[in-house]
Design brief:
about 55% helix; Leucine-rich Repeat Variant; DNA polymerase, domain 1; 3 domains; two-stranded antiparallel ribbon; about 0% strand; 17 helices; mainly alpha
Amino acid sequence: MEKQVRAAEMLYHLTKPNQFVQIALSRVNELEYEIRVEYSNSRDFSAVETGDVFTLSDLHEAMNVYRDCYVALLRKGYCYWGLIPRDRNEWERTAEKNRLLYFIEEYCHLKALKELREWRDEQADKEGVRHSAVFSDRNLRTLATFLPQNREELMNCPGIGEAKQTLYGSELLTICRRYKRKFSTPLPSILPKYKYKDGEEERFRPFRVKRIPAKNSSALREKVLRIGETGRDVQELSILSKIDDRETRRRVASAANKLRNPEVTRSIRHLLFDEGPQVRQFMLRAIISSDLREEMADDVRLLLEIEPKSYNRALCKRILAQ
C-alpha cells in the first residue's frame, strides 16, 4: 500500500518559504511519504467543501509524520497556514505566535497549570458557566508558562483583557507568584509582541449602540447572573445589554441563551454585532435556543460576512443551514 500523506490543502508561509519547502520535502521524502501542497480561496478554518482547507486539528494530525522537522522550524519562527492570508500582518502575527508555541511546549509549569485549572473549574461552578467561559485551557497553559508577577505582565498575557483582569486579576497573580518561570528571557520583550492588535474589533464599530457608563460593574454582573438563573425581571436585560462593560454584556447574552425567550433575544439583538467575540457567540446560541433562526437569518448572514472567529462562523453557518 502506497504511503501517502495528503498534508494537504495547506500552504506554509514563512520568512524563507523556499528554504522551508526544501527542508520539509527532504525530511518527508526520507520517511517515504509524499506531501501535496494545494491552494484555497477560503479563509475559513472550519470549511468542509471539497477542495477546501482542512481544520487546524486535522493539520496537526497529518503533521505527526514529520513532527521533528516541524517543531524545529517553529522554534525558528516559521509559521504554517491552512489557507492563504491576504493581509501580511496576519502571517507576521502567526509567526510571532508560533515562536511562542515553543515556550509553551517547553516551559509550561505543570504544577501551576494544575492549580490554575482547579481554580478555573471552581470559579466556573460558582458562576454557573462553562469552564472555558472563564478561561480556556490554552489561556491557562499560557499563564502557567509566563507566570506573570504583576498586573502589567498579566495584561499582556493572551486572553487577559480589562474585564478579566478586573474580575480575576488578584487571584491569578496570587497563584502565579507562587511559582518561578523556567526561562530567563525578560517577559516584557515577549508578551507585547504576542498580544498583537490586528483591528478585528474595528469592523464592529459601525454597529455599536450608545453605551451606558458602568458605575458598579461588579453589581451589574451579579444582577445579570441572577436574572439568568431565576428568570425574573427579564425586561431589564435590554438596558443591561447597553452597559459599557463587556463582561456584563456577555452575561446578558448568556442569560438570553439560558432563558430561551424570543422576546428577550429580540430586545438585545444588537449584541449580535458586539465587538466582544464571546458576546457574539452567546447571542448566536440564544438565536438557536430561542428558535429565531429564520427571523434573524438576515442579521446572521451579515455577521458571517465580517466575523473573524471560526467558532462564531461555524455557528452562523449552523443557523443558516436550518
